[in-house]
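Fold this sequence, please.
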Amino acid sequence: MKFSPDKATYPCKKQVYRKKDGGGNFLEDVIGLEGESIDGNPLLTQVMTNGKVCYPVPTIQEIQGTSLDNLVHLPQPFKRLSNAEVYPVTKSNGLERKRLEVEKIIALQNNE
């Protein structure tokens, strides 16, 4: 596991949750533990199992439609070509707690 703030890795299976406002516009994404109770829509979907595709592959038109819909709901400050704002992505409290827990376990093992 990496502990550097710029390159920290996080344990466990994760899910990304997208929070939206009342109009469906994106507010932020939260990286959390899989199954954690977080407001927002889960974004990650399993597409492979045992080396086999287990997800209906979308057509190019469906991919295009999803992309266009995402762009419509991404607020303008994030779409500027210059001086664009950075879209907010945070880690959940549960994920941070798990990282600290694993860090402590590794530190104890290294001190033995």
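The helical segments are 60-73, 93-111. The chain has two helices and six strands.
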